[in-house]
Amino acid sequence: MKRADYVSTTNACKLCKPLGACLAFRGIEGAVPMLHGSQGCATYMRRYIISHFREPMDIASSSLGEKHAVYGGGPNLKQGLKNLMTKFGAAMIGVATTCLTETIGDDVPMIIREFRKEMEEAGDGPGLPSLVSVSTPSYSGTHMEGFHAAVGAVVDQLCAGDLLCANSEGKFVNLLPGFLSPADLRHLKEIVADFGLGCVMLPDISETLDGPALEDYEKIPAGGTPISGIKRMGCAAATLEFGRTLEGGATAGMILHKRFGLPLHQSGIPIGLRETDAFFKALEQASGMKTPEKHQSEKGRLVDSYVDAHKYLFGKRAVIYGEEDLVIGLTAFLAEIGIKPVLCASGGRGGRFASCIEHVTAGLLETPPMVEEGADFQKIEELCQELAPDLLVGHSKGYRLSKKLGVPLIRVGFPIHDRFGGQRTLHAGYRGTQMLLDRIVNAVLEKAQEDSAIGYGYM
Amino acid sequence: MSSSASVIFQERKDQILRKGQGDFDMNCNRESLAGAVSQRACVFCGSRVVLYPIADALHLVHGPIGCAAYTWDIRGALSSGPDLHRLSFSTDLQEKDIIFGGEEKLYRALTELIDRHHPKAAFVYSTCIVGIIGDDLEAVCRKVASEKGIPVLPVQSEGFKGNKREGYGAACKAMFRLMGSGDTSNISPLGINILGDFNLAGEIWIIRGYFDRMGLQTVANITGDGRVEDLQRAHGAALNVVQCSGATMELAKMMKESFDIPFMRVSYFGVEDMAESLYQIARFFEPKAPGIMERTRELVKGELSQLYPRLQEFRRELAGKKAAIYVGGAFKAFSLVKAFRLLGMRVVLVGSQTGTEEDYRELYEITDEGTIIVDDSNPLELSSFLKEKDVDVFVGGVKERPIAYKLGVGFCDHNHERKKPLEGFIGMLNFAREIHSSVMSPVWRFVPRRKAR
Fold first, then answer.
1. Probe site for chain B from A35, A47, A88 (most B CB atoms < 10 A)
2. What is the pLDDT of residue B22?
3. pTM of the full predicted structure?
């Protein structure tokens, strides 16, 4: 098959690095994400994120102008930090860089050290928020690299190595879920709690980006991983980290492993039976407890529905696109139910995408699907012409392609800009898999029903 | 007032005004305060939104992926033909391009995309990073233009070089380079250019319909449903009508200077401003077009006789309700203040991202006592004002929506994402319907803000 190599990018299948960092910082209690760069970056990302979550998403900016680009943005960054302290009462400020400040060479860690020193000298030391910085130049990597870099930076900069752990704290695990929906995160917390384990989930956007109606606007939305919890992560029984492409990398889980000797269980995002089994197995190990009946029943119902659904799905050709780890999880699941993934595409270029896809489909597919790294929608569309998929699985930016091809789009992940409830989409666990399965079967049935002139009342 | 005092930065105090408390004194048009979470965007954003609706041009963003990704299909600017503008093109600069320069990649990307899409022209947007690494956009564009035989126009829109307004200027400069080259021989003496309308939800088609009925010929849509060839012959028009205070005024001024085309400010929002705009245009053409005034009167009368009875129904229920406005350019706010008055509602808060002193002075004139007027506001201020004034409906854009909704306040999107036309006489009806459908919804009875009473 022709696989043209284009210089230009058309309709990107990725977002920029600082956006991921802002999302991760939003999942920490009392934290305000801040971008060191020009005002537009913050505003664009806010708009993009708000349109998915339908929630406030404040991202501060150091609002650099032309003279700062020449003389350095340090003074503006410091002023911004101070304003966030006084007006927002931030407990933490997560500073992510942008392409502008990376290129003019601002040394953000140094500026923050200076700021801390200046504040201490002025007697404002005790009220100083935690300050975390992460380097996220938008010209290398995607929003997912930015997300993971921010999580790594939080752990690296807040988890001091000389931690004393007391037995009285109770047994808990660290859960590093990656970028999942608020509904997913709530479900994961429920699962961990059902094993009788405490949990520090980092980051945790389950409340901060899906909160209740309020009488007063919160300067910083309630919820998120407590900073006190982050500082105790070194005392956990184990760390569970999701994302197959992360294995072996310098991730937050690896930092905790190296700094505190914590056992690290890295696994795929728990979508589908096998990846979810791996997650439950890790919890069984960490807790010394068997999977509770409630979850065994959920698994049982899921297997039962695999059977009920199999005839509708066998051999259907799917194109899956989006963030690498989400695509891997989805592909693992789709292969289990007899769908034939024909293309797995991502705008990311992590380098491990193809081998992970091969791994999760081994034994279920005769040949692994075509895998495209660094893909945009131009390329995905061209490949679709030949692959003739029956359905697309990915975020809402594939809508126009699905319309053109006349095939259903199963909306998952981020962003979902053209439907309601993206933040409440459940993908993870047996329960999330069940919901995905129901949606996929119904999309296939709806298409068959619509395409038929008969108007079947039973499908 | 005490509640809002705690959220207002010392540095921003003179950017907020309460009518009736002292004289008009407003500081505006300055850089956003670091850490204040301004609702503003950047220079690139300004250029991108203005040029975006030109549907048969290639719009290539030269920079890392974010700038292009966040502006993909961002505006509901409709086209009656080609829709190349709805695709998002980027050079997606990588680290090695930053080190060695992005000119070669830009050249190859431009060539590739022009060969693939055969656009009538190409706009190449500069982003922050390009301003820093110093790529010579002008030279690359010149080279590609001569090789491909179409205009290739650099847009100097480095994000950090100001705010959205500078971006409007850069867009105007780029468009101006197209003008003067097209054939103007078949343009009537009653030719008109529509500036500052972006054809959201098909609005420019409504306005063009009015102009047709008045006997005018629309030469160029700038830029809603825009075409490169129309821009190239726009200098053949007799008049520029300019809506949207910031976006295209600079272009009108350049066209006045170079082609001696007069311009006038208009607004198509609300009944009063819509009618007055049409009359103003009719008065301009009256010496050349006898009968235009009568035709215009007939048009307005016909539209109003249909509109008013229907508006009254909404007015009955909306009278006395309170509205807040926060928009990009202040000019839209003028019309909205009047439109709300027509519905019997009170505007208690009005602000903009990029208003000028002149704009705020006018807002001060047309608003009621006690109204808060604010420049370059932020979520903390806006939410405290909404609460203080017990607002029933807030008009703004996507970034303002969650502020209103979180507090249980109605909202009307008067920006890029609207799907129903709000311009013209029919637009006023749509506006009234939308305000009504938000204010009168039963859901507000269940939100904490109302329940607490």
1. A47
2. 79
3. 0.95
How far does A205 lie from chain B, in Å, by closest CA? Answer: 16
φ and ψ at residue A169, rounded to 5 degrees: -65, -20
**Alpha carbon distance, N-terminus to C-terminus of chain A:** 36
Q: How high is the mean pLDDT of chain B? A: 93
All domains in chain B, ordered by first residue = 2-27+319-418 (3.40.50.1980), 43-176 (3.40.50.1980), 191-302 (3.40.50.1980)
Across A142-151, B20-29, B238-247, B288-297, least confident range: B20-29
Residues of B whose CB is below 8 A from A66: 160-162
- How much is the ipTM here? 0.95
Nearest to B188 by CA among B298, B288, B293, B297: B288
Judging contacts by C-beta atoms under 8 Å, the chain B residues touching residue A16 are: 64-66, 69
A300 burial class (0-12, 13-18, 19+ CB within 10 angstroms)? exposed
Reported as a single tens digit per residue, the pLDDT across A343-398 is 999 999 999 999 999 999 999 999 999 999 999 999 999 999 999 999 999 999 99
Q: Are B125 and B59 in contact (CB under 8 A)?
A: yes
Residue A166 has pLDDT above 90, yes or no: no
Strand B121-126 and strand B152-155: pairing? parallel
Determine whether the interchain pair B37/A77 forms a contact, defined as Cβ–Cβ distance below 8 Å. Answer: no
Q: What is the mean pLDDT of residues A88-95?
A: 95
Residue where the block lists tokens 């097209």: B182
The distance of B228 to chain A (nearest Cα, Å) reads 21
**For residue A66, what are its two tokens?**
């032309």
Q: Are A217 and B44 an interchain contact pair (Cβ–Cβ within 8 Å)?
A: no
Among B7, B37, B91, beta carbon nearest to A8: B91
pLDDT at site B452: 60
CA distance A211 to chain B (A): 9
Nearest CA to CA, how far is B111 from chain A (Å)? Answer: 9
- Contacts across the A-B interface (CB distance below 8 Å): 224
Give residue-wise pLDDT tens across range B128-140. Answer: 999 999 999 999 9
Question: How far apart (Å, rounded) are the C-alpha atoms in residues B57 and B79?
Answer: 12
Instruction: Tell me how far apart the alpha carbons of residues A53 and A424 are, in angstroms, rounded to a whole number.
Output: 9
Q: What is the pLDDT of residue B31?
A: 79
Domains of chain A, each with CATH number or no CATH: 17-158 (3.40.50.1980), 167-293 (3.40.50.1980), 310-451 (3.40.50.1980)
Closest Cα in chain A to B403: A56
In chain A, positions 8-47, which contact chain B (CB-CB < 8 Å)? 8-12, 14-16, 18-19, 34, 37-47
Alpha helices in B118-163 (DSSP H): 128-133, 137-148
The tokens describing B84, both together, are 């190349």
Chain segment B304-347, per-residue pLDDT in tens: 999 999 999 999 999 999 999 999 888 889 999 999 999 999 99
CB contact under 8 A, B98 and A139: yes
Task: Please list every residue in chain B whose beta carbon sits closer than 8 Å to the beta carbon of residue A42.
Answer: 37
CB-CB under 8 Å, B69 with A80: no
Find the mean pLDDT for residues A170-178. Answer: 95
Range list of H helices, B92-156: 95-100, 103-117, 128-133, 137-148
Q: Is A137 on the interface with B (CB under 8 A)?
A: yes
Q: Quick one: which H or E segment has residue B352? A: strand B346-352
For B410-446, give the DSSP string: EEEE-STT--S--SHHHHHHHHHHHHHHHHT-GGGGG
Q: How far is CA A344 from CA A127, A361, A368, A379, A400, in A?
A: 49, 12, 10, 12, 18
pLDDT per residue as tens digits for the range B41-79: 899 999 999 999 999 999 999 999 999 999 999 888 999
> Residue A52 pLDDT > 70, yes or no?
yes
- Given this model, what pLDDT does residue B453 score? 56
